[in-house]
Structure formats: structure tokens, C-alpha cells
Design brief:
With 637 residues, the chain is α+β, with helices and mostly antiparallel strands. It has 20 helices and 22 strands. The strands form four sheets. Strands 1, 2, 3, 4, 5, 6, 7, 8 and 9 form a nine-stranded mixed β-sheet that branches. Strands 10-11-14-12-13 form a five-stranded mixed β-sheet, sandwiched between helices. The longest helix has 28 residues.
């Protein structure tokens, strides 16, 4: 029986926090994190309010500015936040919106927002609470209203400071350095999200301006074609089946469904999905509806064209090979699987989207028999390739966690069987593999050597992919399957680490590996399981001093400048040149190594880059190299 610990526990020990105080105490509950991602989430929260005005039909422009002092301003030309005294709270409605948790226009009612990406009404309150200061200006009723807050606390009541004929809301805030690890906004991070929002809201102009000294830059996004232009951008440079993307839109009450799709000559399935402008990276009922309808329409077309027999059936995978599609739905009371909103769960959306695609795509197929025939024949070819791949694919499936004797023979597995503690190094060549196996901590570190460069999966179908011995070894070792068989719960290692030589060949092997993971196991990247090791470029030796490892040319130049004595450098051309102790100390020891987490900030841009750099078009690669040649600082030849 445990011993009691004496202490005081009474009414005075029960702490009651005001809503905004709670946000400051537990910011991760509201903006996910206080790192760079959380910082930029503040901007998204304010912009989302402006987007809600656009969805309601009252706003057609949003301007985002990073100001000279590092603060951020978001201004729209919507109706403006109501300025009248709130009947229940006794203060201006502007103050209620910025300080009262769970107050807002997103909970239904005739005057509120029926369609919104926000669910809990906390958004701008969190921004206010987590900012050193925030200024809210509202243009309404011929006047300019303003209120200032410090760390969420109003400094004075809302007041009229001028006159204007425009309407809208302007919010300027400066993130609180007491809360965030960094308060420096990154232009490119903001640009990715704002461009995405412009695609998703056709006809809405969104501008981004950076006024910081030395960083001046500006972009304006306006896509009258909406997601149709997004599909065009993804497919730019690819040979396509339809001359332009097909676009379908349906509305039923306040529920709206938009779909744009186009087939290309690649073997990849690319589907992006959104619900109320939220990127649902794990799909959901709207994606299920799209897939069901595509399968039905193309099978029906095959039979009507006498290409398929009644007993023949193309699978979903067959009909989606080479497709690029975007599905965006807007609905009331969106239900997501988790707080991160990665997957939409509203069941009625499945039927709604499926009906839209079946009717509209079905009509297009009937009216364009030549294109329909080519599409069905292409799907049949895909089916034959999948049949050829089926036996190879079965060999890669784990029968059960850790029961298989079919793990790759060259895999040096770790002894711990708890995936959350384990990591696997994908190593270039047997020489480096041997060094890594000797130098590792075999309790939690597994080593899988690759022989040469793996297959470029961007250029081949699934059957060719699964015939490749190195790829089969990785699939089997990871244990989580690929494509539709992917199951993250079966992943045998929490961290998958690419460890290649610090030269051009090593970089090429790393990009081949990332291409495979992006196309066949993308959730591993999206959920933070993929890393690149950072081996040193040099060992610097100075007589009478301890050896120092340098990881870049910049570090070498700085070390040169700091040492008057003669420095002897050893340039590591390959991991195999290191001793086991050196490899452990520099690249594998969790206490001293540097790992770079691979993430996807812009999935659309990543998709384009893999298609350009690893695809079939030399002309696109030449153009990319010509446009970016000046960015190369150190080319190892």
C-alpha cells in the first residue's frame, strides 16, 4: 500500500482560468504546437475568417502583409465583424469575438456561417491570446472602428477613429515570443497555403506582401477556374488524355461539391481532397464517393463499347492509374475523424459526390466515345500489369507483426520489438552497410544495405516496381504495405533514415528512395517517419587539438578562418571510409547526430517536382536545370 503524502487541498487550490488564460497556458490544444508550424497557423486562423466571408458571398479579396516590424496584417473586404453592443455580454461584438471563447458566427443561425472550416469558434481568440499585441479594425456603417489588445486583454473599448465608405475587417498581430519558439514568418510557407486557398475559392483574389527589409516580395493569386486550374498546374508538361481537365459542380442546399479531373500518361494516382478548404490528407467520404463513381462509369462504358464482357470488371486501382483529381466539398457541420481534420466522415457526402461524378462524368463519356474507348483500353492495360504484379505483391505483405521468416537476408534487424523505439537505416552499398552494422546500437537500430541505385518508380508500373529486389526488401522490412494495402499500424520502425554518401551519387540514391516513398507510402512522409542522415564532409585535424567534424563547405571555411595553425582535412567521399567509431559518433549516435526530417509543405509542388525530375520528359528537366542553375553552390564532380 502506498504511503499518503500530506498536503493542502481545498477550494483555494482549484484554479479557474479565463478562456484566453487557458489558451496561453495550453497553446498546443488550440494551434497544435508552438514551433514554426504553430506560428504560421496563427495567420491561417485569421485568413480562415476572411475565407468564411467569401464562402458566404460577401468578400472577394483578402490581403496578407508581413510588416516591416515582423507583425502580420490580414485585411478583407467583407461585411466587417459586427460592432454593435452584444445583448448578452454588454460589450462590443468585436470584443466578444476576440476574447470570449466559443463565441462566434460558426454555430448556426440565419446570420452565422453555415459553411466554415472552423468548428469550435476559438480561432481568432487563440491568435489574440498568443500575440504580444493585436489591433482589430472594422470598416462598417461609414466608420472605422478600432480596438487594441495586449496578450488578449483589451486596452480600451472599441472606438470610432475615422470615416470610410469601404467595408471589411483588418487584423494586425505580433506573435508573443514568450509563447513561440520563433516569431519570424516564412514567406514561402505562407505562400503555399494562400495559393492553395485561391485555387479552392475561384474568383477570390488573395495577395501576399513582405515588407521586411531585404525580404521585399509580393504575389497575387486569382484563379477564375478554381480547382480546374489546379489540375492543369499539376499536369503541366504531362501528356494528357483529355485536352483540358473535366470540371463538375453540384449544389444541394448549402452543400457544394466541386470535382476536377484529368488523366495523364504516368502510372500514378494523384487525388487531392478538401472539405471546407481543409486539406483532408487521409481522404474520407468525399474521396470514397469519387472512387466509387469512377469505377462504375468506366466499367459501364467498357461494356457499352463492347470492350468488356459482362463478367469482366475493372477494379478501382485499374481505373485510377494516371488520374489527377481534386475533390472539394463545402458543407454544414463537417465531421472529421480527429482534431487534425485529416479525414472527412460525413456519410451523406459519399452519396452526394458519387451521384455528381456518375451523372456528369457518365454524360461526358457517352458524348466522347473515342476518348472513352482510349480510357477503357488504358485501364485494361493497367489491369493486366496489376495481375502480373499480384504474386510479387503478395510476397511483400506481412502475414502478421514480426512472425515472418521472410525478412530480407541482408537486413540486420534490431533486438527491440517496440516500433516506437526502433529505427532503420537505409544504407548505400555493402561497404557502408558493414560499417553501419558494426557501429550501430543493435538494440534499436536496424540496417538495410541497398545494392546500387534502386529503380526509378516514376517511370514504371507496379509490376516492375515489385520485381525490383531492393524495393521488395524495403517493403518487407518496413512491414506496413504499399498503396491501398498501406497500414501504418504495422510499421516496424518509427524512423526510416536514409544514410547515403555526401556526394552526387548519394543524393541521387536519396531522391530515388524519396520518390518511392512519396508514390507508394506517402503517409510515412506526411506523418513524420522519414529522415535523412547528415554525415560529415570533412574531419579537421590540428596538432594539439581534438579532431573536429565539419558538415558543409561553410563550416570548413569558418573553421579555416578561426585557426591560424595548419589544418589537415580528410574529405569523406563515402561512408565506408569511416571507422565504426567515427560513423557512430557523427551520424548514428542520437546524442550527437543530426537528422533532417523529410516533410511535405506543398504536396502539389512536390508532386510536380517528382514528375519533372524523375519523369519521362527530358525537356522539362532541362528547363528546370536552366532556371535553377544559379542556386547550385557546391557541385561535387
Amino acid at each position: 500500500m502506498s504511503e499518503k503524502v500530506e498536503g493542502v487541498y481545498g477550494a483555494e487550490q482549484i484554479q479557474v482560468l479565463d478562456g484566453l488564460e487557458h489558451i496561453r497556458k495550453r497553446p498546443g490544444m488550440y494551434i497544435s504546437s508552438t514551433d514554426e508550424k504553430g506560428l504560421h497557423h496563427l495567420v491561417s486562423e485569421v485568413v480562415d475568417n476572411s475565407i468564411d466571408e467569401a464562402l458566404a458571398g460577401y468578400c472577394d479579396r483578402v490581403d496578407v502583409t508581413v510588416n516591416e516590424d515582423g507583425s502580420c496584417t490580414v485585411e478583407d473586404n467583407g461585411r466587417g465583424i459586427p460592432t454593435a453592443i452584444h445583448p448578452k455580454e454588454g460589450v462590443s461584438t468585436v470584443e466578444v469575438v476576440f476574447t470570449k471563447v466559443n463565441a462566434g458566427g460558426k454555430f448556426g443561425g440565419d446570420s452565422g456561417y453555415k459553411v466554415s472550416s472552423g468548428l469550435h469558434g476559438v480561432g481568432v481568440k487563440a491568435v489574440n491570446a498568443l500575440s504580444e499585441w493585436l489591433e482589430a479594425e472594422v470598416y462598417q456603417n461609414g466608420h472605422i472602428y478600432k480596438q487594441v489588445y495586449n496578450r488578449g486583454v483589451p486596452q480600451r473599448a472599441l472606438a470610432v477613429i475615422g470615416d470610410t465608405q469601404k467595408t471589411g475587417t483588418k487584423v494586425t498581430f505580433f506573435p508573443d515570443a514568450e509563447i513561440f519558439e520563433t516569431i519570424v514568418f516564412k514567406y514561402d510557407t505562407l505562400r503555399v497555403r494562400l495559393k492553395e486557398l485561391a485555387f479552392l475559392n475561384k474568383g477570390l483574389t488573395i495577395s501576399l506582401t513582405d515588407k521586411r527589409a531585404g525580404k521585399e516580395r509580393s504575389d497575387t493569386f486569382l484563379y477564375e477556374g478554381g480547382i480546374r486550374e489546379l489540375v492543369e498546374e499539376i499536369n503541366r508538361g504531362n501528356e494528357t488524355l483529355f485536352s483540358e481537365p473535366l470540371y463538375f459542380e453540384e449544389q444541394e442546399g448549402s452543400t457544394v461539391c466541386e470535382i476536377a479531373l484529368q488523366y495523364n500518361e504516368s502510372y500514378n494516382e494523384v487525388i487531392y481532397s478538401y472539405a471546407n478548404n481543409v486539406n483532408t490528407i487521409d481522404g474520407g467520404t468525399h474521396v470514397e464517393g469519387l472512387k466509387l463513381a469512377l469505377t462504375k462509369v468506366i466499367n459501364d462504358a467498357g461494356r457499352k463499347l463492347n470492350i468488356l464482357k459482362e463478367s469482366d470488371r475493372l477494379t478501382g486501382e485499374d481505373v485510377r492509374e494516371g488520374i489527377t483529381a481534386v475533390v472539394s466539398v463545402k458543407l454544414e457541420n463537417a465531421q472529421f475523424e480527429s482534431q487534425t481534420k485529416d479525414k472527412l466522415n460525413n456519410s451523406f457526402i459519399r452519396t452526394f459526390v458519387s451521384k455528381c461524378v456518375a451523372e456528369r462524368f457518365g454524360t461526358y463519356i457517352e458524348e466522347h466515345p473515342a476518348e472513352a474507348r482510349e480510357l477503357v483500353l488504358r485501364c485494361i492495360t493497367a489491369q493486366k500489369a496489376r495481375d502480373a504484379a499480384r504474386s510479387a505483391r503478395e510476397l511483400t505483405r506481412r502475414k502478421g507483426a514480426l512472425e515472418s521468416n521472410a525478412l530480407p537476408g541482408k537486413l540486420a534487424d534490431c533486438s527491440d520489438r517496440r516500433p516506437e523505439l526502433c529505427e532503420i537505416y537505409i544504407v548505400e552499398g555493402d561497404s557502408a552497410g558493414g560499417t553501419a552494422k558494426s557501429g550501430r546500437d543493435r538494440r534499436f537500430q536496424a540496417i538495410l544495405p541497398l545494392r546500387g541505385k534502386i529503380l526509378n518508380v516514376e517511370k514504371v508500373r507496379l509490376n516492375r516496381v515489385l520485381e525490383n529486389a531492393e524495393i521488395k526488401a524495403m517493403i518487407t522490412a518496413f512491414g506496413c504495405g504499399i498503396l491501398d494495402d498501406f497500414d501504418e499500424s504495422k510499421l516496424r520502425y518509427d524512423r526510416i533514415i536514409s544514410m547515403t554518401d555526401a556526394d552526387v551519387d548519394g543524393a541521387h540514391i536519396r531522391i530515388l528512395l524519396l520518390t518511392f516513398l512519396f508514390r507508394y507510402m506517402r503517409p510515412l512522409i506526411e506523418h513524420g517517419h522519414v529522415y535523412s542522415a547528415m554525415p560529415p564532409l570533412y574531419k579537421a585535424s590540428v596538432k594539439g587539438k581534438e579532431d573536429v567534424y565539419l558538415y558543409s563547405e561553410e563550416e570548413k571555411a569558418a573553421y579555416d578562418a578561426a585557426n591560424n595553425n595548419k589544418v589537415t582535412y580528410q574529405r569523406y567521399k563515402g561512408l565506408g571510409e569511416m571507422s565504426t567509431e567515427q560513423l557512430w559518433d557523427t551520424t548514428m549516435n542520437p546524442a550527437t547526430r543530426t537528422l533532417v526530417k523529410v516533410s511535405i509543405k506543398d504536396a502539389v509542388e512536390a508532386d510536380k517536382m517528382f514528375s519533372i525530375l524523375m519523369g519521362e520528359s527530358p525537356a522539362l528537366r532541362r528547363q528546370f536545370i536552366a532556371e535553377n542553375a544559379t542556386l547550385v553552390k557546391d557541385l561535387d564532380v
